[in-house]
Amino acid sequence: SSDVCSSDLIVKYEIYIDSLFLLNLGMNLYLLELTNCILRHTATWRRIILGALCGSVLATIPLLLPVDFVIATISGFLMSILGMSLVTFRVSAMEAYLHLLEILTAMTVVLSAVLQYVMRRVPSDMQMPVLGILLVGGFCFLVLRPLLQKDTKAAHECMVTLCNDKTKIRICAIVDTGNSLIEPISGSPVAVLDKKVFENLFCNDKQGDFRVI
Fold first, then answer.
1. Does the predicted model carry a pTM greater than 0.70?
2. Do residues 60 and 24 touch, judged by C-beta distance below 8 A?
């Protein structure tokens, strides 16, 4: 229970932690899978579920503490976003992690805006149950997911030309923004190449001018 006070009004309301936890868990699953679509499915379903559980717990904990409701809500949101991203996605570079936070926050804003739009059209004398809110969120998820997959597929694919002194090969490549692989000696970024493409490009290289990493 908590109180909201003004100069001449005190409103008392109750928060059902179990319902809030379930609601956060469902919404976190939607958010993480939408983010995963944008990142070209770099996270497994196991990590997505673990991340959603972590985010739900972190969002709920501040509400159990004797602090102002607004502070508890904001701190819970920040802790949830940070916790979910760290548990779900394996990102080692700071730049890639900040990009991940931008995507996750943007998806949160979009999904929240759609839910607020729907909730405002529910009659004031009706209370939508948690299951109803999750179903609305699920509908939004089903609409957004194909759109994101279509856009990210075009944005993450391009044609590149690989060449050495004698050979040129033009192939379709994936721009993987989640790839944080680096060569440990020089610190240079590493691109992943198909074995057959590598052999076609460097099969005549007798110098052995490569370094195992």
1. no
2. yes
Cβ(148)–Cβ(30) under 8 Å?
A: no
- Nearest-10 crossing angle of helices 45-60, 17-38: 140
**H helices present in the chain, as ranges:** 17-38, 45-60, 69-88, 94-119, 130-155, 195-202
Can you give the C-alpha Rg of the chain in angstroms? 23
The predicted pLDDT at position 6 comes to: 46
Q: What is the DSSP string of 55-74?
A: HHHHHHGGGGSSS-HHHHHH
Q: What is the model's pLDDT at position 126?
A: 64
Quote the tokens at residue 198. Answer: 């590598």
Measured CA to CA, the distance from residue 75 to residue 90 in angstroms comes to 23
User: What was the pLDDT predicted at 209?
Assistant: 64
Q: Residue 16, SS3?
A: coil
From CA 198, how far away is CA 182, in angstroms rounded?
Answer: 19
Mean pLDDT split into 10-residue runs, the chain, 213 residues: 49 71 89 84 84 91 83 87 87 79 86 80 70 83 78 67 80 72 78 83 64 67
Q: Give the whole-angstrom CA distance, residue 18 versus residue 24.
A: 10
The residue among 34, 49, 55, 40 whose CA lies nearest residue 111 is 34
Phi-psi label, residue 40: left if phi above 0, alpha if psi -120 to 50, beta otherwise: left
Contact 4, 17 (CB under 8 A): no
Taking the C-alpha atoms of residue 65 and residue 60, their distance in angstroms, rounded to an integer, is 10
